[in-house]
Amino acid sequence: MKETPRSGVEGYARHIRQYIFDNFVMSGDVGDIPLDVSLLQEGIVDSYGFVELTEWVEKEFKISIVDEELVPENFGSIHRMARFVALKRGQEGGRSGSASKPADPAESGPSAPPRILHGKEAV
Amino acid sequence: MCGIFGYRFIPGHEEEHRERLLHMASVLRHRGPDQEGGVIDPKHDLALGACRLAIIDVRGGSQPVSNETGDIWAVVNGEIFDYLEHRKILSQAGHRFRSACDSEVIVHAYEEYGPDFVERIDGQFVIVIWDRREGVLWLYRDRFGICPLHYARTPDGGFIFGSEAKAIFSLKIMEPKVDGRALDQAFSYWTNAPGHTCFEGVREIRPAHRLRLDRNGILHEERYWSLPESAAAQRQSRSLDPDDIEQQIREEVTTAVQSRLVADVPVGVYLSGGIDSSIITLLARETVGPDLQTFSVEFEDPVFDESEFQEIVRHALALKNHCALRITARDIGVHFPTAVYHAERILFRSAPVPLLLLSKEVRNRGIKVILSGEGADEVFWGYPLFKEAMIRRYWRRNPTSKVRPRLLERIFPFMPQYSGRYVQLLIESYRRTLDYSGPLDTHVTRFASCAHQKKYYAPAFRASLHGYDPITHLQEALGNDLEQVNYLQRAQIIEQETLLSGYLLSSQGDRMSMAHSVEARIPYLKHSLVTAAIALPDHNKLLGLKDKRILRKAFGDSLPSSIAGRIKHPYQAPDVKAFFYDNGQEADYVDELLHRKRLEDTGFFDPAVVAQFLKKVRTTPAERFSTQDNMTIVLLLSTQLLALHFSRQIERNLVLHPSTFHVSLLSP
Description:
The complex is a heterodimer.
Chain A: H1 9-25, H2 47-60, H3 72-75, H4 78-92
Chain B: E1 2-8, H1 14-28, E2 35-41, E3 46-52, E4 65-66, E5 72-80, H2 83-92, H3 102-113, E6 123-131, E7 136-141, E8 150-153, E9 159-162, H4 165-169, H5 180-189, E10 202-204, E11 209-213, E12 219-223, H6 227-237, H7 242-259, E13 267-270, H8 275-288, E14 293-299, H9 307-316, E15 321-327, H10 329-343, H11 352-364, E16 369-371, H12 376-379, H13 384-396, H14 423-431, H15 444-451, H16 459-464, H17 470-478, H18 487-504, H19 506-514, E17 519-521, H20 527-535, H21 549-555, H22 561-564, H23 576-579, H24 590-593, H25 596-602, H26 607-619, H27 627-644, H28 646-653, E18 661-665
Parallel strand pairs in B: 2-18, 13-14, 13-16, 14-15, 16-17
Antiparallel strand pairs in B: 1-3, 1-9, 2-3, 4-5, 5-6, 6-7, 7-11, 8-9, 8-10, 11-12
Helix pairs in contact in B: 2-3, 6-20, 7-8, 7-20, 7-21, 10-11, 10-19, 11-19, 13-18, 18-19
């Protein structure tokens, strides 16, 4: 059964990982897909795959992503994507400013702060 | 062109030899329906045969041909374009000719110059010479592999050859079995490693090589021509004056086209609407006039269709006989199994199929010979791959640059991931291979992209490869050539040895045109032209992101500016869409070939992973199929077709024509 998107970074991460497994990895075990490495650098998803993936993220999580947000800081790993989704959903739900705090305590690798654009200010 | 075949060291009575030749002829008849014949030399356990497509000296030039005394015999597939010059010289040297055909020149040239005669000829060919005096069989393939030759050894020491592998299997000494390593090669770089085929035990002569089968049955492979060496020699005498260069290339291309128009039957042109085929059309039109027959493929799907540009050329050159064949995705699905039967290779794109359908149309209109623009993108560096290699190198010198990698956006403008929106993620994916610096570094992006396809391997199949690495294999096969040249020339040589020879000239070229007895001639691969071009300073080909500069400069003024300045539009066709239709229907063989049971029969692919893929394509809207998905479906279906259906397809084509097959029997 398909997992439904749950709130919370961990829930988003699991949901994104399942999508990546179903559409790109396909073989092995979904749990083997690492959460904190760059999918692009590891070659898990290719560059066109990211076109599919980002379109799916927009639709699935009902967020809209502007060009400047399509950067490794937001899409470099599954956890980064999940954190980005959480921030966007928070933002679009009326909250803002949570970008400064790492939303995912489980993240261990070297990380850069997510880049989220608030209207025109960050261009 | 023709189909040629034969064997040595396989004993038998006269009737058995005859029967074998009839079998081999029957599966190659599509290559040459005009005349069939053979020669049997029972004393040497040898037989040669040919199915001839008559183009020069239509009545007189039957095959096999022999010299005056009958101790040298040849079968020839292809054309010797400078045969008239050789004929004149050889006649003066005392050789007597029975026909006006180019093939007959071969036996006399061999007599006169010995086995190195091949270095003197300009052509696209496979030549097999039986020298009775020495008991030696010689097999030659042209410098770029335009014409094919497959061969195999039997367990008893026999040697069998044929233009296509099906001729070898028609003898039923060997079964067609898909070779696991060959599959791994195709899933690594779209083609087989040089000299390899998809079938266990079957090899190809590499381009620019010859084989010598000595009287003791030992096979020797030798290269008779090398592009890097020819280029080095050419560089000694080249002029660096821009006007001289322009003049030289204009003359080379013009001569190449003119020499490829030589025939005793009408010659047509394949016009894609790109600059390369437009130049050929322009030059052929100058010789033939406005009645020149031109042929194009049009696609129902605007993503692939280039008819707008074909129309511009047709109009600008006032061509009166243009034939455009409109292709739908379903046409491709319907004819795909036939295309795989002819290609005898694992395919990664469906694009050969429209050319299979086009050659039928060409033949229906009474044309046997066409000129094709293949080769120009390798010779003049027109492929995006060359630009990509250049950008990677430029970026690597300053890896922290924000600006340099952004040039990548401009090389594949037709691919969404290269558009501005995704550029930062694109750069991230390129960064992964930025440090790679082996001799195949120009192709590392392709290797990385192909590697995604290996997820479909069944675990047992993967294990059976025992860590075999097709990329190391390729690197070893290309060896020295890659050390003698700069990185863009290296990219050219790798392209020629892989995609050009192993797909464009074969699966998409010779095999698709010859399926309907149409010979494709390739002017841009005239070797003097290729040598002149590779010896030019690089900026004549690629400068910044401007490609094929010298070609555009030499001929741009004679073509409409929308053609002369056009960027590369890759010739491709619908892939997933050819098999999965909007209304939920599918090509009728998809389910059968990719069924769990059939996958288990062949053992190459993991049924669960293939099922997941099928689920994905069946639920994805047609316009969302990715490059990888398109590649996957063609790789899977073509592999399964070769493994499961090829043998039966050969069986169905075994229709013997004993009454029209003429055999010469050599006395002991």
